[in-house]
Amino acid sequence: MTTLTDYSINDAPMLMDIRSDTLEPISNTSRKFVFRLDQAGYLDQNSVLLFKLANSANNNNLRVNGFNGGLGAIKRAIFQVGDFVINDVSGADEIMTLLNFVGKNEQVRNNYDCWYYQNQLHYKVLEGADTSSAGADNCGTGSIVCDKVSSGVNIGDVANGNAGASVNSCRIQQSSANNIQMGIPLGVLFPCLKGRTLPLFLFQDYRILITIEFHDAPQYINDIAEVNGGAGNNDGLRANANAITYSDVKLQVDYIIMPAEVQNKDRAMTNAQGGLNLTFFDSVKIEKQIPAHANGVLQEVEHRIGADNKEVHKIYMTKRLTADDGTPTNAIFLQQRIDGINQEEYNVNIAGVDVFPEYKWAPSSQYDETSNCLGTDIQVPRPVYYNDDNTAFNGLGTQTGGTLGKYKPLCLDLQNGNDGVLGAGRTMGAYPIIFKYRRKGSRAVATYFSRPLNTALEVNYHLLVSKTANIRSTPQGTNVMVSY
User: Fold this and answer.
1) Cα–Cα distance between 452 and 466 in angstroms, integer?
2) CA dihedral 281, 282, 283, 284 (to 10 degrees)
3) What is the spatial distance between Cα 121 and Cα 350, in angstroms, rounded to a whole number?
């Protein structure tokens, strides 16, 4: 009877606190900064890397590119506990833009993300012939081009080497005090933090370090003085090396302090047999090259990717044409682009078996597989991804205007449908993954492909893999082991 009339509340206490600290680097060079975190509470994904840029070129011509802005500044991000690496994200500008940026629609990117990254890229549909926007591609009504008035950078007259280019907003000035501070959430930089927190208090006997390495200016900075490809850069409006410096680099860290009862439950699991396992994603980057070939002749390349005993969930292939032919077609995306070839196809062989019954050659099929990998569509105008002959002939985008085939990753989804991280991918054996790629370059389609598509390619493969951190309490202290 007493249990029927007992109205006492036995819920776990829900009082929690958030402690915010601003961390200065414990060591740094001009482009590499190391931070040490406290072993306190749970690290929140909304903790932010803060930094400012300063113009060292002694001019007022610089701005971060309008596509992904300051997100393009990050070359590498490392999260480590003691000597164990939780995440080592090389090519962070590429893979994090794919995973956390291009899946958002243009309104969100330009009205929300811009407060973090200072990106500002708008498109417009031409209502008549406009060679200053479309370039030499002879496109007119219906062509999608960069809106030079609303975007962060006016790319100028693209038919005349970007002449008349100007900075519309967020100019990088010589004094960092006059420049806007940029912020990149750690949940964007590190897959282990995306959509979750990390219990730092369990790593009480280890140093917790975050290392950030930045790119040099040519990777993502526009310079409106560098018309006609400037200094042999090919891209047009691409800044020269050492044009910017980094200052006021800090971490704004949010530690979530949960009630003692909640934290003690996690701590108790480290005393259980086998300890506590934290599973999360990591990114692995593999660099490859594809040589130039004769235009219109089928080129087939097989890249072997070692992933021994790793559980692979996704494979992202990115590529950039590297030849300097003097055509400034990349002023919008700079080195943040992922070049598409108008005739290209791919397949992937795992353990001697092709994943697809035939090469994936149709752009719509390639786009569908990319959407499966990202969990959402790539939110860019059609010609920015599609640069097949039909798209070019119909004048939907322009190569000289910088809106044709400038962001086209090729992807493979290996997830098996299970929830979670561990057990949801495909475990690789001793045989390497073989990524089979074919291209023919461009057909003779008048001036629609003014830049050759048969030149050498710089290729990166980003693998999203499972990783586990095992935490056990011993009489000598906490023991941590991180493994794939």
Assistant:
1) 39
2) -130
3) 39
With a CB cutoff of 8 Å and minimum separation 6, the contacts of 293 are: 299, 439, 441, 454
If one counts every other C-beta atom within 10 angstroms of the C-beta of residue 285, the result is 18
Residue 167 has a CB neighbour count (10 Å cut-off) of 17
Q: How many CB atoms lie within 10 A of CB 198?
A: 23
CA distance 133 to 130: 6
In the DSSP assignment, the letter for residue 131 is H
pLDDT digits (tens, 9 = 90+) for 106-147: 999 999 999 999 999 999 999 888 888 888 777 788 899 999
CB 360 within 8 A of CB 346: yes
Determine which helix (DSSP H) or strand (DSSP E) holds 195, and give its type and residue range.
none
391: phi then psi, degrees, rounded to nearest 5: -60, -40
Is-contact 357 371, C-beta < 8 A?
no
Query: Cα separation of 10 and 75, whole Å?
Result: 49
Distances (CA, A) of 298 to 180, 321, 343: 48, 17, 9
**Which of 330, 68, 60, 244 shows the shortest CA–CA distance to 169?**
60
For the beta carbon of residue 56, count every other beta carbon within 10 angstroms.
Answer: 14
Give CA–CA dist 214/31, Å, rounded.
5
d(CA 186, CA 179): 22
Q: In Å, how far are 22, 44, 46 from 17, measured between CA atoms?
A: 17, 12, 15
pLDDT at 235: 61
For 217-243, write each residue's pLDDT tens digit.
999 999 998 876 554 455 678 898 999
Question: Residue 163 is encoded by which pair of tokens?
Answer: 């002449």
Consecutive H or E run containing 468? strand 457-474
Report residue 206 CA to chain centroid gap.
Answer: 29
Return d(Cα 266, Cα 78) in angstroms, integer: 25
One-letter amino acid at 126 equals L
Q: Which helix (H) or strand (E) is 305 found in, with range?
A: strand 299-305
